[in-house]
Design brief:
With about 160 residues, this protein is mainly alpha-helical. It has one domain. The protein is about 75% helix and about 0% strand.
Length: about 160
């Protein structure tokens, strides 16, 4: 991104917002949460692009991990503010990161019989999914331990 958001980057961010809002409608997210979910999609893709600029274009795992972490933190914060489950915000805000293109190219390479291409795109899709999972797990683990420390996450003892 080099400090300047180009027209192409703005297009990606706007369409990330719109796509996220569209999926939120499909998932029947409450209308009052739509602006927040759309902002989550914007933040998700912005943090992914920032991760690519930080770690390099070939570091899809690290960029996705960063984006997954930021988006899960966003979801946790707004879940507490809105008194709603964090998955409402997380699942819909994470839509821009779904590895659709690598999965398509992976399947195309399998059909064509190109094992090298299939291995490459399969690896990219797997690393993207792993980055999402690790990023979200890190935030949810931190939140779990914070709730334990505050005493809100423990169950009452049976007598």
């Amino acid at each position: 991104m080099n400090g300047i958001l180009t027209i192409e980057v703005w297009k990606q961010l706007i369409f990330g917002m719109l796509g996220t809002a569209g999926f939120a409608l499909i998932f029947h997210v409450r209308y009052r949460f739509l602006p927040l979910v759309a902002c989550g999609g914007f933040l998700c893709w912005l943090s992914y692009l920032w991760g690519l600029s930080l770690f390099g274009q070939d570091a899809c795992f690290l960029a996705t991990l960063l984006s997954g972490f930021v988006t899960a933190a966003f979801a946790e914060v707004f879940a507490r503010i809105c008194k709603s489950p964090s998955t409402v915000f997380f699942l819909t805000s994470m839509i821009p990161l779904i590895p659709g293109r690598p999965l398509y190219y992976f399947m195309d390479a399998i059909v064509d019989g190109s094992q090298k291409r299939a291995a490459y795109y399969g690896m990219v899709a797997f690393l993207t999914a792993l980055g999402i999972a690790v990023g979200m797990s890190m935030v949810w683990t931190i939140c779990f331990f914070l709730r334990k420390v505050q005493g809100k996450g423990s169950r009452p003892q049976a007598r």
